[in-house]
Structures are given as C-alpha cells and as structure tokens.
Amino acid sequence: MFDHMLSILIFFPALAGMLGFIVSKESIRAYGITVSAIEFVLSLVLWYGYDPSVAGMQFMEQFALVPAFGINYLLGVDGISLFIIILASFFTLIGIASLTETRRVKDMIITLLFLQMTMVGVFAALDAILFYVFWELSLVPMLYIIGAWGGPLRIYASIKFFLYTFTGSLIMLVGMLFMAYFYFQATGQWSFSILEWYRLVLPENLQLWLFVAFFIGFAIKVPMFPFHTWLPYAHGQAPTIGSVILAAILLKMGTYAFVRFSLPLFPDASVFFMVPVAVLAIIMIIYTAMVAYAQEDIKQVVAYSSISHMGVIILGTFAMNVEGISGSVFLMIGHGVVSGALFLLVGVIYDRRHTKLMSEFGGLAQVMPRYATIFGIMVMASVGLPLTINFVGEFLSLLGFYSQSHMMTLLAGTAIIVGAIYMLSAYKKAFFGDVTKEENKTLKDVNKKELVALIPLVILAVWLGVYPKPVLTPINNSVESIVQLMHEKAITPEAKAAIPNPAETKIAMASVTEVEVDVEREAE
Amino acid sequence: MEMYLYIALFAPFVGSLFAALFGASPKTLWSGVVTSALLFASFVSSVTLFVYLLQGGEPIHTELMTWMATGNLYIPFGFVVDQVSATMMFVVTTVSTVVHVYAIGYMDHDKAFNRFFAWLSAFVFSMMILVMSDNFAGMFIGWEGVGLCSWALIGFWYHKESATWAANEAFIMNRIADLGMLIGIFLLYWHTGSLQYDVVFAAVPNLDTSIVTLMGIFLFVGAMGKSAQFPLHTWLADAMEGPTPVSALIHAATMVTAGVYLVVRANPLYSLIPEVGYFIAGLGAFVAMFAATMALVNRDIKRIIAYSTLSQLGYMFVAAGLGAYWVALFHLMAHAFFKALLFLGAGNVMHAMSDELDPFKMGGLYKVMKWTAILMILASVALAGIWPLAGFFSKDKILEVAFSSEHYIIWAVLWITAGLTAFYSFRLIMLTFFSGEERYKEHGFHPHEAYKFMLWAMAPLAVLAVIAGWFEQQFVHFVTELLPTFEFHTHHVEMMLIAVTSLMAIGGIVVAVLLYRNGLLNPKLQQTAVYKLLFNQYYIPKFYDEFFSKPYAELSKIFWKQVDLKVVDATVDFIATTIYKTGEGTHTMQNGNLSSMLRWMVIGTVGLLVLAVLYVKRYDILALMQMVFPGLGA
To answer: CB of B155 within 8 A of CB of B167?
Structure first.
C-alpha cells in the first residue's frame, strides 16, 4: 500500500487541481476542502507507515529520467522531511477551509493545489535536479497569488519575490551542476542523487566554493540578512492565505536545504563558515527584531518576527551537533505552526477592518475576547514560552550552539528578550487600552470558520510543546545519522573536532552517568 | 504518596481550566469557589506530604513522562518532594488558598471575575511546577510560567495604560534575567551531561572552579530577575498596578522568592563557590538598604510594601549567599505569611478608599476599619522583627549569620535597615490609621470595613505571622536533612545581638509613632534633595527610560527606515534597476536601422581588434605606439 505513497502525495493535488477546472464555481470550495483533506489524511498515513526507529530514507521510489546524466526521479522521506510534508498538507487544508470571500476563488484554490504539489515535491525529492525543478516551480503559484490577489503594490512585490529568489536559485543550480561534475570525475559516472553525493568526500577548497554557491540560493530563500528585503514586501502585499503558506512552508525550504545539502555535503566548509553564518544569524535575530519593534503595521511585525526566528533556526543548524540540528528542525515545524497562525490571525482583523495599522486598533480584547485569547496564546508561543511548540526548538537550537560558542549563544539568546519586546508591545497596542475608534466597537469576534482553522493550530502549538516526543524522536534519529555522516566525512581536524561523533558521545555520557550512580551508591 | 503529589500539583491547574471556561462570560461565583476549593485540596495534599516528611518519610521522586529527548539530552517531567520543596509547597498553597478566598470578596464587583481566578490558579500551578520539578528545565517551565501569569495579572485591568505598561516591563525585565538562567542551564548541560538535580549536584564537585563560578553567576542572574534584585528591581514597584491579591500572592509571598529558592536549591553548587556567595550576600545587603530608603518617603501604600518586599528579599539573599541556606528558607517562609497579610490589609484599605493609595489622604481610619488595622499592625510588628512574632526569629538569624561569618559591614547595613524597616512600616500604619486628623474626609471618601469573610480569610496568615517563628528548632531539624547546617560562632554574643537589633527595631517604631502622631510632617521637607532623590527612586526608572527604552525605540526606527529600507533594500533595487537601465539604454543599438547597426559593428570590430592587440602585446604598448605612429620618434 505504501509503494508509491510519495508520488501520490505529490501528484494527487496537482491532478485534482487540473480536474478542478471543470468543477463548477459553486462547489469549488467543497471540492478544494475535500481534496486537501484527502491529501492531509494521506500524509498522516505516511506518518503511520513511517518507522521512527529507522534513521535513513523510507518510502523510496526511483526511475530513471535522463540515464546518461544520472538524473532520476528519486523520492524518499526521513524524519527531517516527514513532518514538514505533513505540515504542508495541513496548512493547505486549513488555508482552503478558512478561505474568506475571494475574487476568482476557483483560480485561487487550483493555484493552492498546484502549490501543494511543489511543496511536497521539494521535501520528498532526493535527486538534485528534481529538487531544483520543484524548488523553482514553487515560485510560480506564489507569484500568481501575490500578483493576482495582492495589495496595491502587488506587481512590484511579486516581481521582486520572483526575481530575487530566482537569481539565488540559479547560482545554486550552477553549484549542483559542478557537484555532479565532481562526482563524475571521482567515480566516472554522472549522478544527481543526493544520497550518492553524500558518499563523496570533496577536498576542502572545492567544498568552500560549492558551499557558497548553495548558500546564496538557500540564504535568499530563508531569507537571511542581508537578503531578506523581498520578504516584507511579499508579506505586505500577499493575501492572508499567501502569507500563511509562505511563512509556514516556503521559507522552510531554505533551512531544510541547509540540513539536506550544505551540512552533509560540505562538512568542512560548514565548519569553516560556521562563524560568519552564525554572525549573520545573530544579526538576523537582533536586527530584524528591532525592525519589527519599529513597525506600525501588525502584519509587518509578524513578517519581521519570522525573519528573526529563522535566525535561531540557522543557528541551531550550524550547531553541528544532534541537539542543535534536531532543535532547528523542530523549530521549523514550530515556526511554521506559530507564524502561520499569526498570519491567519492578522487576516481575521484585516477582513473586518481592512487595515493592518496598529494605531487603528486598541482595546480589541474588550470587543473580541476570543480573538484576543487565541492571539495571546500564539504571541506567547512566538515568544517561546516553555510548554509551547517554539520553546522546544529554540531551547534545543541555542543549547546546541552553546557547545560551539559561549559568547555567540549569549548574543543569540537575546532572541528571547527582543522577541518579547516587539511581540508584547504589538499585542499591547492592538488589544489593550480603551476602544478609541468607533468602528472597533462593533467588531464581531472570531466566527466558526475562522475557529476551524485556528483551534487546531492552538492545539498543535500546545500539544507539541508539552509532548514533543512523537515528532522529536524521528527527527532525532535521522539527525543523528546525518551528524554521524558529517563526522566521518570531515577531513580537516577543525571540522572533526567541531562535529561530535554521536556514537562516541553516547558512550562517554553513559560512563559519566555510571560514575554518578557509583557516587550515589557510595553515599548510601 | 505519589497521589498527593499529583493532587497538590494538578488541582490548581484543573481549577484554572474550570475558571477559564467561563473566562469571557459574566461573573459566576462558582469560578471563585471551585478554584478555592481545589486549592484547598492542593493545600491539604501539601500538608500531608509535609507531615509525611516530617515523620521521617523518604523524599518522593517520580517521573510523569518524557518531555524532551534528543542527542544525549533527556528531560522528563519529573517531580521531587523533599524537605525544601515540601516547605515551599506548604508556603505556596497556604498563601494561595487564603488569597483565593480573599479575592472572592475583593474582586466581587469586577467584570472579569472569572478571568481573574483562571489566571490566579494558573499562577499557583506554575509556581508548584517551579518548586516541585526535579530538574532545571522543569524549574524553567515554572519560572517562565509564573512570569506569564504575572504578566497577565499585572495587566489584568488592561484598559489602563499604566497597568499594561507595567506588565510588559515586568515580563521583559524578567526575560533579560531568564537569558542568564538559560545560559546557566546550557553550561550545566554541557559540563555535566544532564539537567537533573541529583546528577548535576553529584557532578559539580569534580568540575573546574571557574566553570562552576560561571554556572553560579549565570543562574544567579536568573534569580536576580525574578527576585527583583538591583539593577533589575524597577519592575516590582510598577507591578503594584495589578489587583492587590495578586500583589500579595505573586509579588510578595511566592514568585519573587523564586530566586531565593533557586539559590537554596542549588546549594551544592553555591557551596563550592563562596566568592559568588559573598557577592550575592553583598548585593542582598545593598538591596535591603537601598529598597528600604525608597520606602521611607513613598506616597503609595502598595509601593511602600513592595519596597519592603524588595528589602526583605535582600535579607534572604544575604543568608543564602553566606551559606545559611536554611535561614534563607526560614525567612522566606515567615516573610510570606506576614507580607501577604500586610498586602491583603492594604487591599482592604484600598477598597475602603475607592482605590486611593496615597496615605497622605487617609489618616484616622482606625475608627472605621478596626480589624484591618489590627491585622496590619500585627503584620508590621512581625515585619519589624519584634519578639515573639515570626520576623523576630527569622530576621535575627540573618543578622546573626552575617555577624558569625565576620561580615560586619553586611551586619551593620542590615542592622540599620532593620531600623528603617520598622520606621517605614509604622509610618504607613500611622499615616493610614492614626495620625490625628481624618484627612480622608477632605477628599470626600466614605471608607468602610471589608467583608467579614475576607477578614476571616486573613486570619490564618495572622496566626502564622505570629507563631511561625516558634518552630525554629523543628524547622532547622527538618530542612537540614537536605540543606547544609550553618555553624554559628556567636553564642557568646547572641543575647547582645538580639538586644541590639530589637532596640533598633523598637527605636524605628517609636520614631515613626512620635513623628506622625499628629499628622503629616512639614511639607518643606519635600523640597530637600534627599527627599527628591528617594521619592524618584534614585532616578533609576527615569535613567532606564532615557538610556535604554528610548534609544532602543529610536535605534529600531533607524534600523527600519534608514538601514533596512535605505541601505539594504535600496542596494537590491539599485542592482536590479542598474541591470534594467542598462538594457533600457542599450536596446536602441538594435533598432533595425542598417546604417546605425553598421556603425555599431565598426565600433565593435575596432574594439575587438584593440583588445586583441592589447592582449598580444600587453607588455609592449610603447612598441605598439611606435608602430602605429612612427613619426613620433623614440
């Protein structure tokens, strides 16, 4: 039954989207919800069928596309990609289910279904060319969503989004071609399979160049400082649904690619560039948090907060140890849930007031108590309060990076302070105080349709904060194997030292505990 | 016994959820009653556990489930009830239960009655997690949880700008300190491989002293935030914006003592680094006096008590810093009782005076609020440290600790502060309840005594404020099963020390009574520089505002408008427009006009030729020149 699971997950929404053209306008919503619900159930089936004790790829599928150059249709998931795929199908579902009155709703739903195909494709692809194809394809539906349903500056924003990320991706593509060429030189065979690339140990100077090529593509996508400026425009102009998908899933492509490509392919270069990357990440954390604090538009606050949180994810990734990388992968899920929810929440008030300026609100807690409560929970999750989803990821990421640098972790740790500053002051401006504007006095609280989207996110944010184990264990196992691989592949002594060997540290730690047990026994 | 542990822990949580169900609906008395009843259940369970340990039972250690596990990190939801946590549980549940019952009356007319109880019980739950966890990460859950509840309760009347401002200030300032604690936790993990108390404390003696020192410092930074130690103290006075029961429970009895609890809990770590301990003690003594001086002149009854709390926290840190962990815990307990009582009394006064807080507008309230006055005087006497009330035993011990460990400066500071404490406590009492004239009449107030059941609810605290000190011997015996004992070398001067301290306290009271017996002091005093300095809290809040808040906001604006839009984004756009403009500017080359295209072709050919020649002869340009223009000569 699981034979072609991933292919089904990728192409079912696209095929259903094509069929959508012949569905009548009245029933397109129901159709969209049904399709995305089936897709979501299928992704849950994938989780059900996934064996968490296996670290490697599962549900692999392969057939040759261009045998002469070793380009294959190669799919597979591990603990790192599994949950992002589930999250993608989950957000498509609640995105379609909570879709408000929209012009040309049919086009919107079909676009979303195509977007879903590309998202699942990116995270399931194990062939670099396949990955690249889905990566670039994902730009098109988003370009269309921003360009067709966006605000007044939509054309500028969408073109900027497209060209900027496209430029980055081209450099990444060059990197991929070189990588395949080096593989050819080393083995006499062409291959674009990431898994085969993993086995290739490159000399350090080549690693450095390739790392940079890949880095530019990923960094623009994340987006990392100073490549981030397309994001506020995109969020500012995109309709709610666009922002939700963009923040929750599309940005994760960049951070996911770091874990999938940069670290295991170029362990020495990763260690070499660890400090500069961490510095960028710290700038992202502090600088964008301050920019977020200065915003007047609540959606921009959430947009910049996204960038700030992505900084923590990057930092966790470059911690090079199991704790940090697991944390950063978990934070990808957490940030997806929380920022997606926050954009949905901003959409709720935008639908009612057609403005996003915080000065237009004030005292909303009195008029819309339920809305204020849900928003408050998400604010606290975003701030990273323990027992919410973001804390787990943030804590582990910072904990992991601490083994690399004390000072930099201290600086990056200010994330918990600056994050609280902009989030709480935004919440205060919008929700506290007296209701000063006449229009706000009669606002309706969240309705059922909005609750359908928001309640599951609230549950998720708390559930995975209290009990992250079902998600964290598979992530941990896959990350362990990646760190193991990096440790073995590393050639420079610095890299060997910086990347711990998970197998060894396990033993070392076990002996520490044994000693302690002895101490206890003696005490008795 | 595990069952009692879980009841004690989760009963407040259930209560909180119950009240939250009605969060947005109009007042239902049930939300107050059910949460109080559940808290009582939690109290009974805590007492059961306390008694169980008192009778020599083994500490209870259980694990509910895994929380985080990755790499080598393993963090469970684990709970431990030993002598220290049992004491804390007893204090927390006692005060909470009293405050819950009291609040049913106090919040009677509030629209958000249900929301209040939801948050109040949630706070107790977080506090229980804080004191019962068996690892540092679990403590951090409670640590942040109480921060959240404190935020929500300070800003409970969220339509007030001052309240929400104070709430955010408290949260953010605590977060600054929490970063310290987080770093401390990271240090612990990377050097001991675990966050469980037992594993960590077994491992720290084998570590390098410098590492342990760092751990101690960072963890203490966390404690400084929660316990509002200088320089992170300003939030506590502003937190008085919250409803008074909140001040009593959170900002006097429980949450602010979390920092002391942390140091007491981590005593195996702090015992290894006495230098850090001296620093803690020194800072504590400084804060004790610093806060007491601000309380001398303040004109807000709640803020006076808040400064007093700050000052008493300083005392606790002196004891903890000097290694007398049990004394710190003892004062923590005694202080919780009389300070909560004092706050609840202040709540009665506020209610009577329609939320007026300025004691200069009161005076002579004793006639209308006899019982409140008696309870508050009792609490103040206990606070001042007069025999035989609780404060006498606990505070005296701290002074003895300082004297015994030969820190005479600390002792002297604390000794003077004891006088100040007595003075400001009785200044408050005199101004509010006595001092001749009934100034409230001029301002048109019609005070009345609080509900009977509110007074009765306060009674247990009053009893404890009186008797808590009498059980010193039993307490020592009980907690030193876990905590190290402290060797006093002061037996020869013990009586003299007690006499000197008590004289100081009595002196403070007498001065206050004499000064204020006939009403206010000469208003000219308010023009003096010292008065202004103290009244403006040493200008520290102003300093923070001018040098941190405002520059942060300004800098944020600059980052956004100047850097992000005008530098980073403009660069991107510049590159894009340059490419675009180049295309725009050069597309006329291909306008299809034959003659212009030929012209460009010629230019291109010449250009290419020149390049080719330059490339071939790049080292020999002079020779080339001679070849082209032979007439030029050599």
So the answer is: yes
Q: Can you spell out the DSSP letters for B224-238?
A: HHHTT-TTS-HHHHH
A122-152: pLDDT as tens digits: 999 999 999 999 999 999 999 999 999 988 9
Specify which residues A77 forms β-bridges with.
A58
Closest-CA residue to B9 (of B81, B65, B57):
B81
Total residue count of chain A as it appears in this document: 524
How close does chain B come to A45, measured CA to CA in Å? 25
Tokens 């008795």 belong to residue: A524
User: To probe the interface with B, which of A280, A402, A477 has the most B CB atoms within 10 Å?
Assistant: A402
Q: Which helix (H) or strand (E) holds B62?
A: strand B60-70
Sign of CA dihedral A135, A141, A142, A143: positive
What ipTM does the predicted assembly reach? Answer: 0.91
- Under DSSP, the state recorded for B167 is H
pLDDT digits (tens, 9 = 90+) for B156-204: 999 889 999 999 999 999 999 999 999 999 999 999 989 999 999 999 9
β-strand partners of B78: B63
> What SS3 class is residue B353?
coil
- Nearest-angstrom CA–CA distance, A195 and B342: 69
Among B551, B547, B554, B540, smallest CA distance to B238 is for: B540
What is the maximum alpha-carbon separation in chain B? 122
CA-based nearest distance A420→chain B, Å: 6
pLDDT at residue B626, as a whole number: 67
- Global pTM value: 0.92
What is the model's pLDDT at position B227? 92
Tokens of B360: 């200069």
Query: What CA–CA distances, in Å, run from A20 to A32, A35, A109, B25, B35?
Result: 8, 10, 8, 44, 53
- Lowest mean pLDDT across A436-440, B421-425, B598-602, B612-616: B612-616
Cβ A307 vs Cβ A225: under 8 Å: yes
CA distance A230 to A303: 11
| Dihedral (Cα; B273, B274, B280, B282), 10-degree rounding | -150
Residue listed under structure tokens 């909560």:
B340
Q: Which pair of tokens denotes residue A366? A: 């009195």
Residue B91 CA to residue B339 CA, distance in Å, equals: 12
User: Both tokens of residue A210?
Assistant: 């390739």
Within its chain, how far is the Cα of A396 from the centroid? 16
Alpha carbon distance B186, A259 (integer Å): 23
Dist. CA A350–CA B40, nearest whole Å: 45
Amino acid residing at B175: R
- B240 secondary structure, DSSP code: G
SS3 B66: strand
Which of A159, A291, A467 has the most B C-beta neighbours within 10 Å, making it the best mutation to test the interface with B?
A291
The whole-angstrom separation of Cα B212 and Cα B188 is 9
The closest of B284, B245, B246 to B263, measured between CA atoms, is B284
Question: Over the stretch B119-168, which tens digit does the pLDDT of each residue have?
Answer: 999 999 999 999 999 999 999 999 999 999 999 999 999 988 999 999 99
- State the DSSP code for B632: G
d(CA A241, CA A100): 9
**Contact assignment for A385 to B190 by CB distance below 8 Å:** no
Secondary structure (3-state) at B549:
helix
- The DSSP bridge partners found for residue B81 are B60
Strand pairing category for B73-81 and B60-70: antiparallel
What are the residue ranges spanned by the domains of chain A? Answer: 273-465+476-501
Contacts of B71 in chain A (CB under 8 A): 321-323, 326, 400, 476, 480, 502, 505
E strand or H helix that includes residue A350 = helix A322-353
pLDDT band of residue A436 (cuts 50, 70, 90) is confident
Give kind and range of the element (H or E) at residue A128: helix A128-137
Does the distance separating the beta carbons of A505 and B72 come in below 8 Å? yes
